[in-house]
Amino acid sequence: MEKLLHWSIANAQGDSEAVARAGQPDPKLLEQLFGGGPDEPTLMKHAMAVISNPEATLENKLTAFDNFEMLIENLDNANNIENLKLWEPLIAVLDSPESELRAFALSVTGTAVQNNEKSQNNFAKYDGSLAKVMQIAGNAQEDAQVRIKAFYTLSSLIRHNKEIYKQFYELDGLKLIAPVLNDANANEKLKLRVMALLSTIMTVADVKDAKFLSLLRDDNIISSTLSFLQPESNLYLIDRVLNFLAQLIDIGFEFSASELEQLKAGVHNIKPVEDRLNEDDYKTVQYVFK
User: Fold this and answer.
1) How confident is the model at residue 4 (pLDDT cuts 50, 70, 90)?
2) Which residues does the UniProt record annotate as the domain Nucleotide exchange factor Fes1 (predicted)?
């Protein structure tokens, strides 16, 4: 592609020496770009055919997935997943024995539905689709990279979509959060993804609803997040926690006596790194004690 770019510029400028240095580009590439090669919907169908082909090698399937993901970064192509009837074969890959394929299927889904209500709803209408992603996210035996992609997909699905969040909530989605945060063996990227999901939840949930707030406590979400207020914790995790706590404080959430004690100790603990944290959230949390 770079060679084609140099050739094109030199050709346009009429620089024969530069054209000679660049050399002639691949005729097949020229034909694909300028000669009416397959359109993008056709390329999407071809990629999914490879992904779904039991005879295709893992390497070829991963290459096809890579191509498919690049295509659906375009909003029209993402919405075409439904039109081309490709959601069902894509969702079926979530049951693949190959962790790399499961991770790619989740990544593609998360990308396709991100800030895209039409594709969010298209995905969610398939029976068991949301529950399948939640099951993968909550499976402690699952490959870490697959779980990271599952939580990414959940965040993408419920962002700005109250109806899908309602389904997530009714499937006890809040119970996915604390076990990961409390898991000493869970890596930091996974915990960051979980905190990103929690932040997304706070934007679509009825955060002033007494039942929702009660579940935050009953499902150990609040105590789990407070435990990260330690200077040795990942700074991005601390920032995520401070943002979550600041959101609670802004809506007038009443911390219990033990939570306040833990919060006070945590704020004291992270003072050595305060200049590296979000200033507004840090000050909001500090304000609780003034």
Assistant:
1) very low
2) 1-81
Digit-coded pLDDT (tens) for 140-181: 999 999 999 999 999 999 999 999 999 999 999 999 999 999
Q: In whole angstroms, give the CA distance from residue 44 to residue 49.
A: 9
Q: Is the pTM of this model over 0.90?
A: no
The C-alpha atoms of residue 53 and residue 195 are separated, in whole angstroms, by 36
Full 3-state SS string of 50-61: HHHCCCCCHHHH
Q: How far apart are CA 90 and CA 81, in angstroms?
A: 9
Structure tokens at 12: 């346009």
What are the φ and ψ backbone dihedral angles of 185, each rounded to 5 degrees? -90, -10
Helices (H), 55-176: 58-72, 75-83, 87-92, 99-113, 117-124, 129-138, 144-158, 162-170
H or E element in which residue 49 lies: helix 40-52
CA angle, corner 22, sides to 21 and 26, nearest 5?
Answer: 140
For the chain, counts of helices (H) and of strands (E): 19, 0
Contact 110, 152 (CB under 8 A): yes
Q: Tell me, what amino acid is at 78?
A: A
The pair of structure tokens assigned to 177 is 């959060």
Q: What single letter denotes the amino acid at residue 234?
A: N
Tens of pLDDT along 101-130?
999 999 999 999 999 999 999 999 999 999
SS3 at position 34: helix
Task: Look up residue 244 and give its two tokens.
Answer: 């979550």
